[in-house]
Amino acid sequence: MTNPPALTYASAGVDTEAGDRAVELMKDAVRRTHSDRVLGGVGGFAGLFDASALTGYSRPLLATSTDGVGTKVAIAQALDIHDTIGFDLVGMVVDDIVVVGAEPLFMTDYIATGKLVPERIAAIVRGIAQACEVAGTALVGGETAEHPGLLAADEYDVAGAATGVVEAGDLLGPERVADGDVLIAMASSGLHSNGYSLVRAIVAAAGWSLDRHVDEFGRTLGEELLEPTRVYASDCLTLIRDPRVEVHAMTHVTGGGLAANLARVLPQGAVATVERASWEVPAVFQVMRELGNVPVGDWESTLNLGVGMVAVVSAETANAAIAALDALGLPSWVLGTVAFRGDSGIGADSGTAGDLVSGTKGVSGGAVRLVGDYR
């Protein structure tokens, strides 16, 4: 009986040396996110963050979030452009933390791939690090896993998690929302990282290629679809800390659309009225709707339609909020208002009644009514 051929980890499809090369290519970008609060270097078993500053809090609350990028990675892989997807990952994670008023302190990432190509992994991590710099968040660790046989050689998926802190007395949320509060919308940079399963289905059904030039976009379809997510964390913290502005709540407009995510941060009995005519829906959303003959309900409940973040502020400070965001170079506008309807129970039941949306994501909160027509 002859001996079977010798098998090694490399012959099974895992290249540990490639992983080491990837770390060498990415480590400078990761280090740029570090302040003196990060201990140790790149490549340790655990990331270390100096939490001694928390002793200055009366009651520090830790906030945490985890997310991925979804099927937008398929666009990056098809175009072989990997240095922007990190902004999508960071935005999906840290901007879920800042809505409660927390400062995102540090983040870790995880990349699974069929074949570890050092240059590709390094490009992904450089994008993550650059986005962390924008957010003011330290990238303290990560992991890259090679999964041959589970993922194709050119396939990968990314995920991340972050931790932040907020003083208990400064926590934002439904309890702070008051009758007459004003909704301040902050513009998205495009599709961000939600609804790509629908978008990709629309594009496939229409037979459009990613290199197709689309006049309404002024660039190719692929370039439009790969537009990075806007990272709001730093700007939102600046707004929250502005003494001229009284922020009561915030919502990050991700999966589920504007109304569903806004309803999550309103208390029961509160109804937010959103004026559709208050903004012009960007071309990418209009084109996708028409190209796929998407029903308005699906369109509104899947895509952000140009609104990436909403701040709920006191009526008296709404103008100051707009001025503060304008000074940061972040387009914003008055989206609508909040009114209380007593103990009517609005928002207690899940579902949508006409243009009234409530009870989403398992939260029995307030409700959102979309009124009027889009421009």
From TrEMBL:
It catalyses: 2-formamido-N(1)-(5-O-phospho-beta-D-ribosyl)acetamidine + ATP = 5-amino-1-(5-phospho-beta-D-ribosyl)imidazole + ADP + phosphate + H(+). It is an enzyme of class 6 (ligase). Signal peptide: none annotated. GO terms for molecular function: ATP binding; phosphoribosylamine-glycine ligase activity; phosphoribosylformylglycinamidine cyclo-ligase activity. Pathway: Purine metabolism; IMP biosynthesis via de novo pathway; 5-amino-1-(5-phospho-D-ribosyl)imidazole from N(2)-formyl-N(1)-(5-phospho-D-ribosyl)glycinamide: step 2/2. Its main location: cytoplasm. This is Phosphoribosylformylglycinamidine cyclo-ligase. It comes from Rarobacter faecitabidus.
